[in-house]
């Protein structure tokens, strides 16, 4: 239950991204700087945290030893995740981007066969390819149905361009985030804690952001002071607080694709928080009856994920004691 609670709390801070990115776009800010500055601002905060904890040297040593692993999966998990989300915010409202982002719930389950579970037998450790968690996938579909209901009436007012540019990039982000996160989690094993892993991925993704910033300077020039301040808020709320909370939750479920799917499903809370944020901050349209029904399904799906995940955890504890 602690992992689920951390996941829901993370979804609240993640929702700040969707609302403020949309606000920055409406005020004339470039999606490029919304993406780049978040990770530029994240780096020093995380660096200080890891240095104070005395864990910086082993992390930097591992990055030097395995640069391609860190650069590759960090670019996927952070670069190909956040840049498309910011691009989508330039063409669609916060609720649309936040809703489409929930595809990551199903994406996380579908990616299970790309990973292995280590089990201990009389012959030693054995790696078994993980299977798609069927129950978790069904529960995730309940959440997605709720997302569809939330957007049922609003989506009719969208243009083809808004759907194309506001949806397809988010699909790329939805698969990139869990893939990069899980691959780096597997690569790090027990060597690094959450703070080290987030810092390592942030540093390793910087070459991607440097290239994108060069594109931003060439196309739109430097960011405004207003966008810089708003991006700093996003970096602290979503980049530091939410990312650490979410990665801490996923670390608690390491090695169990079922519980991991349950934690990833908590991110559906972003839709509700983003919808509330858009109403309060951006003065968006008030939710319809269908929207409230959809929110009910989202909450139900998260509760079921939590209940079944906890039940599986208890059964695993009983089996361990018997063994």
From TrEMBL:
Q: Name one Pfam family in it.
A: EmrE
Protein keywords? Membrane, Transmembrane, Transmembrane helix
Transmembrane feature ranges: 31-56, 68-92, 98-120, 132-151, 163-180, 201-222, 228-248, 260-282, 288-308
Where does the source fall among the domains of life?
A: Bacteria
Please identify the protein, giving its name as recorded: Multidrug resistance efflux transporter family protein
The lineage, from the top, is: Bacteria, Bacillati, Bacillota, Clostridia, Eubacteriales
């Amino acid at each position: 239950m602690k992992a689920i609670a951390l996941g829901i709390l993370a979804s609240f801070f993640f929702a700040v991204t969707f609302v403020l990115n949309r606000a920055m776009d409406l005020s004339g800010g470039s999606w490029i700087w919304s993406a780049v500055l978040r990770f530029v601002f994240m780096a020093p905060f995380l660096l200080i945290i890891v240095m104070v904890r005395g864990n910086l040297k082993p992390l930097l040593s591992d990055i030097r030893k395995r640069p391609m692993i860190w650069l590759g999966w960090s670019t996927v998990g952070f670069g190909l995740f956040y840049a498309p989300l910011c691009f989508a915010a330039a063409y669609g409202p916060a609720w649309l981007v936040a809703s489409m982002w929930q595809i990551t719930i199903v994406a996380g389950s579908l990616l299970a066969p790309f990973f292995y579970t280590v089990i201990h037998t009389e012959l030693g450790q054995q790696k078994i390819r993980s299977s798609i968690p069927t129950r978790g996938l069904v529960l995730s579909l309940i959440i997605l149905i709720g997302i569809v209901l939330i957007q049922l009436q609003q989506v009719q007012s969208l243009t083809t361009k808004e759907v194309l540019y506001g949806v397809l990039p988010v699909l790329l982000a939805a698969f990139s985030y869990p893939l990069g996160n899980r691959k780096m989690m597997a690569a790090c094993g027990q060597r690094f804690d959450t703070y080290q892993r987030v810092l390592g991925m942030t540093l390793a993704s910087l070459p991607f952001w440097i290239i994108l910033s060069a594109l931003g300077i060439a196309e739109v020039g430097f960011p405004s002071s207003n966008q810089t301040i708003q991006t700093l808020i996003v970096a602290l709320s979503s980049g530091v607080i939410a990312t650490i909370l979410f990665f801490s939750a996923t670390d608690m479920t390491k090695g169990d694709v079922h519980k991991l799917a349950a934690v990833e499903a908590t991110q559906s809370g972003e839709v509700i928080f983003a919808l509330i944020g858009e109403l309060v901050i951006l003065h968006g349209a008030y939710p319809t009856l269908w929207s409230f029904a959809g929110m009910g399904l989202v909450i139900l799906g998260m509760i079921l994920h939590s209940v079944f995940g906890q039940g599986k955890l208890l059964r695993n504890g009983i089996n361990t004691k018997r063994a």
